[in-house]
Write a structure and sequence with these properties.
Layout (H helix, E strand, L loop, with lengths): L6 H12 L2 H19 L4 H10 L3 H12 L4 H11 L2 H9 L12 H4 L5 H10 L5 H29 L5 H6 L3 H9 L6 H20 L4 H21 L3 H5 L1
């Protein structure tokens, strides 16, 4: 177990852990988003503030695409909310692990800094950290990621055109790749099947309906993987007892 002398030490340990792959991955993803914003005609201020205030790359991309297509504010709000439902499970799995005295209204501030990278690293490290030090570790980990995101977005906005568009936009996909690599020690076959089926169904659904292809791919691939795991791969209760 990681033993810290005090909360400040836990905070600085979180910063040290952030100033590596987590910050670089988010920074690269936001560079791609900034390039996307410029290519679609948005100004630098709006593109940068989107990363600062939303801090949810899939939701940012969805919002930008729907604004361009002329969708109503209600439709944009609903779509962005739908893409951000993953934060519900992230919050309910991470924040209950905090110390009781840290569960106060300030969590509404800290939860804004929750992203896939900070959640993945925290879920991996929390079991080895004393509960009273977990919040400070999380803040130290998440704060640099949040602050670097608008900087990466603005940089991507101004360097757009210097490198091929496919390269800058491809940076957006580094974030989910980091998420997968963070959990290399957790290898349930259901997850592997869901990813593999997603690679198969994604292009197929995209050819039929690009707007709903991502959602349909997640639902179909995830459901099939769960069904196969439940029916054939998961050990029976008798097997577990044996």
């Amino acid at each position: 177990m990681n033993q810290f002398a005090n909360r400040r030490e836990a905070f600085w340990c979180g910063i040290r852990d952030a100033l590596g792959a987590p910050v670089l991955v988010l920074f690269a993803g936001m560079v791609g988003f900034g390039a996307m914003g410029r290519s679609h005609g948005f100004d630098a201020w709006m593109t940068g503030l989107t990363s600062l205030l939303m801090f949810a790359l899939p939701g940012q991309v969805v919002m930008m695409e729907m604004v361009i297509s002329g969708s109503s504010l209600l439709a944009i709000g609903f779509a962005v909310t739908l893409t951000s439902t993953r934060f519900v499970t992230m919050v309910v799995t991470l924040f209950p692990q905090l110390h009781r005295r840290d569960r106060n209204p300030l969590l509404y501030l800290w939860v804004h800094m929750l992203a896939m990278t900070a959640w993945a690293v925290s879920m991996r490290e929390f079991p080895s950290i004393a509960p009273k030090h977990r919040l400070n570790y999380f803040i130290g980990l998440a704060l640099p990621c949040w602050l670097m995101s608008p900087l990466g977005t603005v940089l991507g906005y101004f360097v757009a055109g210097w490198v091929p568009a496919a390269v800058t936009l491809g940076l957006v996909f580094i974030n989910p790749l980091f998420f997968l690599l963070t959990f290399t020690d957790v290898k349930p076959w259901a997850n592997r099947m869901a990813i593999g089926l997603g690679c198969v169904f994604g292009p197929v659904f995209y050819m039929f309906d690009a707007d709903s292809s991502l959602l349909l791919t997640g639902v179909v691939a995830g459901t099939l993987a769960y069904a196969v795991d439940r029916r054939w791969l998961r050990p029976r209760p008798t097997e577990v007892q044996a």
